[in-house]
Amino acid sequence: MKAFTFKNYGASDVLHPEILEKPIPNPNQIVVKIHATSVTAGDWRVRSATPFPIRFHSGILKPKNTLLGHEFAGVVDMVGEEVAEFQIGDRVFGSMGMKSGTYAEYVAVDVESPIAKIPEGLSFEEAAVVPIGFLSAYHFLQKVNLHPGMKVLIHGVSGSVGSAMLQLAKAKDAYVVGVCSSKNANWVKNWGADEVISYDKEDFTILPEKFDLIVNAVGKTSFREIRHLLKPEGKYLSNDAALTDYLDLLMQTIGGKKEQIILGIADQKKSDLRVIQSLLAERKARPYLDRVYSFDELPAAHAYVEKGRKAGNVAIRVA
Asked: Is the Cβ–Cβ distance between 260 and 227 less than 8 Å?
């Protein structure tokens, strides 16, 4: 099978096509013929080892796993002997989590990992960009009591996680104020935001109103900079936290204060993906596609995403 691998850390041109052996499923696995994958912030950060501590997981001097790619959509090609849930020909999507391996024409997937059948009406490219953003958003939002009328501010609402946060919050009838660039304001409004603030035209940090929940989905601010916008019982949530956020969380914990800060790494669960699957089937959620690249254009897609200006998601058409 054709795949894109990287043998050294660096810019997007370290990604090279290579012919690898097609995987054979273990008894509890399926092999998926990949029709589409994606380029996420996590992909380019691992590829470039940015920030440096990534190397402690991925390999100090060079990558231990040379095959990137964390989410996929495709068709079941082979089924392990213990698998009853999926059949050959099923359209499926899912996440490989920390394992990666979707920058290839085929991938072997454990059936207990986050994987589900693609709802009707969703293309492979759309389905492929759902798992990472929506599972991360769902994981964090489970830690707060979202309820109708709750006032939510999402900084980075036009990104993969931010746009998923927007839709999950609106599904709970929260009131959402999104912060993004002016070029993305229209589609964010169309995607359900009650208000949109363009950070290149207005300073959202001086808003007079207070929020029940502030989401930092883009890593461009910190708790210290915007905590004055929180209500007394409000929460600050970040999937891309600043170093000072961790220090402030530690100080709150040591000081015995009421914790307002929610940080960490999203735990990707199969049961959570089933919730997202239902929302997609009911047309209560949908991914926003910025660009779709061909498989041969994978290095160019990495270069684009690394600039930090993508809107929503970037998909790679493999098959």
From this structure: yes
